[in-house]
Amino acid sequence: MQQQVVAPDTRPEAAQPESPIPRGDDVFELADVSCSYGSFTAVRDISLNIPRHRITALIGPSGCGKSTLLRCLNRMNDLVPGTVVGGTLHYNGEDIYGADIDPVEVRRRIGMVFQKPNPFPKSIYDNVAFGPRLNGFRGNLDDLVEEALTRAALWDEVRGKLKMSGLALSGGQQQRLCIARTLAVQPDVILMDEPCSALDPIATLKIEELMAGLKDDYTIVVVTHNMQQAARVSDMTAFLTVNIDDEVGERTGELVEFASTNHIFTNASDKRTEDYITGRFG
Ligand SMILES: Nc1ncnc2c1ncn2[C@@H]1O[C@H](COP(=O)(O)OP(=O)(O)O)[C@@H](O)[C@H]1O
Ligand SMILES: [Mg+2]
Question: pTM, whole model, 2 decimals?
Answer without folding.
Answer: 0.90
